Amino acid sequence: MGNLALSTSFFRTDATPSDPVHSESFVARRICNGVMYYYTPMTAAENQTVYVAKDSPTTADLHPISSSVSSETLSHTAISSQQHLGAASHSRPLLLFFSWLGAQPGAVAKYRDLYLDRGMDVLLVQSSVMHFLWPQWGLNYGLEILNILEEPPFTDRLILVHASSIGGFTFTQLLTHITQQPKQHAGLAHRVIGHIYDSLVVGSLDHMATGLGKTLLPRLEGFIKTTAMLYFRLFKSQTADIYENGVQVFYNSPVTSPALFFFCENDAMCSPAVLERLMDFWRRRGVSVDSRKWKKSTHAAHLRCHPEDYLSTLQHFLNSLSVPSLQSNI
């Protein structure tokens, strides 16, 4: 099958529960399965009238949402009615956060709150391992997300992408549709003001198989890896060939705004040399690329392992984007 020059990561990490949420009251609305929208109401009056429905948008069992509500609760809620979307400023930038596989609500909240506190709204996109194992489903999911971003309340808004683990793979699925139908979707690529990649898997199918073993059944890592490699060979046209196409799409991404990469040397799912070649390729294309590499860290958990360094690098990157609402201290 040959080696893949680049593949995006789909692996979770052993993230610890987050501290209590410290942002002001916010609204959480389930857009569809796997997609949650978070935004801060515009006024104090709106702040006091934000409600969430536990079971459905029509249930009478309503409870106010605030920063004191647990992230676990928020991950299983939907906003009570469409009218609350009017409270969000459609002029605010949107953080499109593609999380890693199996990300716990507490861990995701740390990233969500970083951007809510910066005056951005957050669209959280969570992926399934089946989106990777059967890429056509991932492509379908990518198109669903793309369609969401092209409809109110997200139409024409500036977008900042932050992709971690399987999120990088899912974002590549969006890029695939943009590449295949540029007249229909090119506008979205131009709306992306910056893209951040945390723990991409770079290398070959072997890196993917290694990640599956570490993610699904760590105690049977070797068996899972061997099985995955056999699966990739048996279903080459439905898996490996599509991955390779995604590699080419990512290398020649229609998104050319500034990029930031977080990675480490001891990540078994990443070849730093290959990743650095990718970054050099993008620079030759005219893309502004920044990066932060650590000798030792944990896959998809650099924020937890190196919080000050991570936040300082992120702050510098956001300041470089020349978007006033992003240029306060984290």
Describe the structure.
The protein has about 325 residues and is α/β, with parallel strands linked by helices. It has a single domain (about 25-320), classed as Alpha/Beta hydrolase fold, catalytic domain (Rossmann fold, 3-Layer(aba) Sandwich). Helix content is about 40%, strand content about 15%. It contains 13 helices and 11 strands. The chain has helices at about 45-50, 70-75, 105-115, 130-135, 135-150, 165-180, 180-190, 205-215, 220-235, 240-250, 270-285, 300-305, 305-320, and strands at about 25-30, 35-40, 50-55, 60-65, 80, 95-100, 120-125, 160-165, 190-200, 260-265, 290-295. It has an 8-stranded mixed β-sheet with strand order 1-2-7-6-8-9-10-11, with helices on both faces. A hairpin with a 2-residue loop joins strand 1 (about 25-30) and strand 2 (about 35-40). Helix 5 (about 135-150) packs across helix 6 (about 165-180) and helix 8 crosses helix 9 (about 220-235). Mean pLDDT is about 80; it is low at about 1-25 and about 45-85. Pfam families: DUF829 (PF05705). This is Si:dkey-5i3.5. It comes from Cyprinodon variegatus. InterPro entries: AB_hydrolase_fold, DUF829_TMEM53. GO terms for molecular function: serine hydrolase activity.
